[in-house]
Amino acid sequence: MANDTDTTAQYNFIPLNSCVVPAEISGNNDKEISEKYINHVQHKGKHTGYFEISLKAKDYLLIGDGESEEGEKNPFKVNDTYYIPGSSIRGCIKNLYKIISCSAFREGEDYKNQKFYHRNMFISDNEPGKEIPKLGILVHNKIDDCYYICEYPGSKKAYGYDKDKPSVKWKKDTAQIVSDVIGEKDNCFTIYLKNVNWSEPFIITEETKSVYVNDKNRGSVNILKCMKDHPEIKYAGTENFDEYYPCFFFEEDGKVKHFGGCKRYRIQYEKGIADHVVIDDLDVVNVDFTDSIFGKKELWGSRVFFDNLQLEDNDNTKPTRNIVILGEPKATCTANYLEPNYSNRIPSYDEDVRIRGYKFYWHKSYQNNTEQKTTGKNDNVKTILHPIKPQKNFVGKIRFENLSDLEFGSLLYLFQILQEKNTGIKLGAAKNLGMGTVILQDCKIFERSEDYYKKLFEGDSWNDYSILPVGQSSSLVAQFKDYVENCENHSRSNSVFEYCKEEPLEYSQRIEILKKALRTDWEDEFGSEVWKKKTADMGFEKRKKPLLDVEKIVHDK
Question: What span, in angstroms and rounded, lies between the C-alpha atoms of 392 and 59?
């Protein structure tokens, strides 16, 4: 079992593939690729048919209808019949398919190349060789409509006034600041306005301003919105400035690099997510398997189609009422979202490390609390959910057209994995709380023969699709797996991984991790209370080892 020093969470990651496996179509430009795609699809020997599936909701399930009242989410239904939308199944299957087919992990589709923020908590006035933020007055120039910061060359600690919370108190010729209070360290300052360097302000560029404004998770006040006129300042010859506010900042080459309202303000990382996506041949392979069968933007559409899955015994199902708090992913928790570096310590987004990969929530039981306990500021983020009760079945079809042996084999392989014992997927809302665990109860594969249209009306009955033989299915799966492994061995290059701690996993290793992430019986094996402890978010002080590994957190007895 996991040690208490291991980093644990309600989710884990499937590592990114070491290289992108190309599909059977390639070309130097869109026109050439499109022509080859047409020839590929029209070639004889393609597979057309459908998967007839039955999904069982092992736990509460809610896929919203998008038309709920504010603060409430209701399940998707059409004419009083509940469904799992085909789009939800498509998104889940496509994500899994990307993993098993070693497809590209692309910006805009699989991740947003955003930059995160961090708070410099450990800055010290006495630490040698480390810059500390300067103190100044943020001003707005009404002539050019730009923001500047005028430096205050010294700071004087001030005591004897309210230090309970961040605040600013203006007096006749001073500004008294409580920037932040952490532990026993009080950060209280007095700015004497006559000593501010009003004549040589540092400009805040639009880019720097945008970086500050775009920090949506700051959790503190936006000082740009706190600025106001202060008549006492104007005696210093600052008649062009109409708004003011004390601040801390760093400057570089006469420009403000970043700024904030307290000494330990939040700073944006230099690197974005894209700097940590390391996959060989990402730019070389222009068509992967996901492009080929799920569609490639404006060049062609999908050859896999997902029907809505209808809920059986619909009349006996009445959604329950649950009040929960739905949070957002905390990608700034670098111990969970980034791989450890060479020193095996918690990395940052400005280091040369990889992101962990595809995120998957563990399967665990959802506790049906009609009123989930909330306190204080969380009361205004509660959401009322009306999920479908557990143990309900949904039935429907997934259709496919003109797939090659390799393409068909790749889909068969994915459904082969999903049919393994104690395997499930996550759909809908509140995945982190335990909702949305769905298992593939049954899957039949029907395929039409090449002479389907000739024999359609022969005899006295309708000649429909025939069930795919097990032997043929196994052969196609083996053909696809051999293709992927050969491509990985041929394309494998260690050059792009030179800064990584470990060599990238082989294909079979990644598939095994995927299977572990999809397991639904961890709770049965370890017991409910132990599993809750293993999947609980631990405090920062317990993250002594930045590990988030299936083998470390959970392993077979």
Answer: 9
Q: Read off the pTM.
A: 0.82
Sign, CA dihedral 67-219-251-150, equals positive
3-state secondary structure of 35: helix
Pair of tokens at residue 14: 């499937």
How crowded is the C-beta side of 117, counted as CA atoms within 13 Å? 18
**Which of 232, 86, 262 lies closest to 167 in space, CA to CA?**
262
- Exposure b/e, 42-62, CB count within 10 A at least 16 = b: eeeebbbbbbbbbbbbbbbbb
Q: Which amino acid is at 514?
A: L
Q: How many residues does the chain have?
A: 557
User: Cα–Cα distance between 307 and 86 in angstroms, integer?
Assistant: 5
Least confident of 12-21, 69-78, 91-100, 301-310: 69-78
Residue (of 36, 263, 311, 302) closest to 133 by Cα position: 263
Short-list 278, 431, 451, CA closest to 362: 431
State the pLDDT at residue 347: 79
Q: Beta-strand (E) ranges in 42-184? A: 47-57, 72-73, 77-78, 81-84, 117-119, 134-141, 146-152, 156-157, 167-170, 174-182
Q: Kindly list the distances between the CA atom of residue 299 and the CA atoms of 24, 102, 343, in Å, as whole numbers in the listed order.
A: 16, 21, 46
Spell 88-103 as b/e; 16+ CB within 10 A means b: bbbebbbbbbbbbbbb
Q: Is the pLDDT of residue 535 over 90?
A: no
With H, G, I as helix, E, B as strand and everything else as coil, classify residue 411: helix
First CA to last CA across the chain, in angstroms? 8
- Average per-residue pLDDT for the chain: 79
Listed in order, strand segments (DSSP E) in 61-184 are 72-73, 77-78, 81-84, 117-119, 134-141, 146-152, 156-157, 167-170, 174-182
Amino acid at 443: C
Query: What average pLDDT does the segment 388-392 reach?
Result: 90
Residue 458 to residues 50, 133, 466: CA-CA distances in angstroms?
22, 84, 15
Q: What is the 3-state secondary structure (H, E, C) of 347-404?
A: CCCCCCCCECCEEEECCCCCCCCCECCCCHHHHHHEEEECCECCCEEEEEEEEEEEEC
